[in-house]
């Protein structure tokens, strides 16, 4: 399969692998950060890098959620609105945590596809509802070390195989 006649196949396979990689796009949320504290019922600033244009029209209205819990069992807490991550827009100034949320440690989840995007954990302050030991979290997935989907692992394996074929084709 990696012989001299495979150059056309190799070019097509590389193009396909690159297209598959592009569909696994997520955004990297850079605000809030671990040192951030958000007060309930007050508009807050959410920012990110990257875009999710590979989601097509759905990228114009992606759900934002407040979550908590360990990365293996993230729990939905409250909806926070929607964002447009289809292009160059990289911030939203009106994210408001409902006043029904207790003080504690939470994370933002943006429902990008095929993988969700997460912020680091941050503090939420609600003077009317102080935190309790059961309201704390052990952390949500961090944007610096995202979990890899089966699709991204297949793409990585395919890219390695294609690289091997490319080297073999060059040597023949």
Structure description:
- 22% of the residues lie in helices and 27% in strands.
- It is an alpha+beta fold and 172 residues long.
- The strands form 2 sheets. Strands 2, 4, 5, 7, 8 and 9 form a 6-stranded mixed beta sheet that branches.
- A hairpin with a 6-residue loop joins strand 4 and strand 5.
- The longest helix is centred in the C-terminal third of the chain and has 22 residues.
Features:
172 residues, alpha+beta, 6-stranded mixed β-sheet, 3-stranded antiparallel β-sheet, 2 helices, 9 strands
Based on CA atoms alone, the radius of gyration comes out at 20 Å
Beginning-to-end CA distance, first to last residue = 12 Å
How does the overall form come out from the CA principal axes?
Answer: globular
Oligomeric state of the chains in view: single chain
Backbone structural class: alpha+beta
- State the major sheet: 6 strands, mixed
Query: What is the tally of beta strands?
Result: 9
Instruction: Please report which band the strand proportion falls in: under 5%, 5-15%, 15-25%, 25-35%, 35-45% or over 45%.
Output: 25-35%
Low-confidence stretches: 6-24, 134-171
Percent in helix: 10-25%
Instruction: Provide mean pLDDT, rounded.
Output: 75
